[in-house]
C-alpha cells in the first residue's frame, strides 16, 4: 500500500500536507517542521518515495520510520554508512503529536489543520493509520510518497 502525502503549505514555521490512503475512505493532515536544508531533527523530510518500516522505541512505540537510503534517510543511526554520517538522517517517524514542535524532523498526522502551527485529533488519525498499515501480517511493506509542488511559499 502507498500513502500519498501532498504538501500544500511551507513556511518558516511549518510544513503542512494532506494524505490519502487509496482504497480507504479517509484522509488526514500531516504537520512537519519547516524546510531547514534537510538538517536532522529540525527540518521536514525531503520529498520522495519512502518505505515505511515498523519502529518501536520507548519514546515512540508502535510507529513507523520513513526509509530511503538514496535520499540519505535511514531507520537507525547504526544503519548509516560511515561516509554518510555527517549528512544522513535517521528515525524520521510518523507519530502522534499536535504542535509542530512535537515532531523534531518527524511527521505528525491529524484529522484537521487549524492554520496555527498544529493539527487536531492526532491520536485518532494515528490510530486510523495504524489500523490500515497493520492489515499486513507485520505492518511492513508499505510506502509513503511525499509530493511537493515546484513552488510553495508561506509566511
Main traits of this protein?
155 residues; mainly beta; 8-stranded mixed β-sheet; two-stranded parallel ribbon; 1 helix; 12 strands; 8% helix
Describe what you observe in this structure.
The N and C termini lie far apart (34 Å). The protein has one helix spanning 122-133; strands at 2-10, 15-20, 27-32, 48-55, 63-67, 73-74, 89-90, 93-94, 108-110, 112-113, 119-120, 142-147. It is globular. By secondary structure, the protein is mainly β. It has one domain (2-111, 123-147). A hairpin with a 6-residue loop joins strand 2 (15-20) and strand 3 (27-32). Helix content is 8%, strand content 34%. The strands form three sheets. An eight-stranded mixed sheet has the order 8-5-4-12-1-2-3-9.
What layout of secondary structure does this protein have?
Blueprint: E1 2-10, E2 15-20, E3 27-32, E4 48-55, E5 63-67, E6 73-74, E7 89-90, E8 93-94, E9 108-110, E10 112-113, E11 119-120, H1 122-133, E12 142-147
Parallel strand pairs: 1-12, 6-7
Antiparallel strand pairs: 1-2, 2-3, 3-9, 4-5, 4-12, 5-8, 10-11
Mean pLDDT, all residues: 90
Rg over C-alpha atoms, rounded to the nearest angstrom? 14 Å
User: End-to-end distance, in Å?
Assistant: 34 Å
Order of strands side by side in the largest beta sheet?
A: 8-5-4-12-1-2-3-9
Range of strand content: 25-35%
Order of SSEs:
EEEEEEEEEEEHE
Sketch the major β-sheet: 8 strands, mixed
Number of structurally distinct domains: 1
**What share of the residues lie within helices?**
under 10%
Counting DSSP H or I runs of 4 or more residues, the number of helices is 1
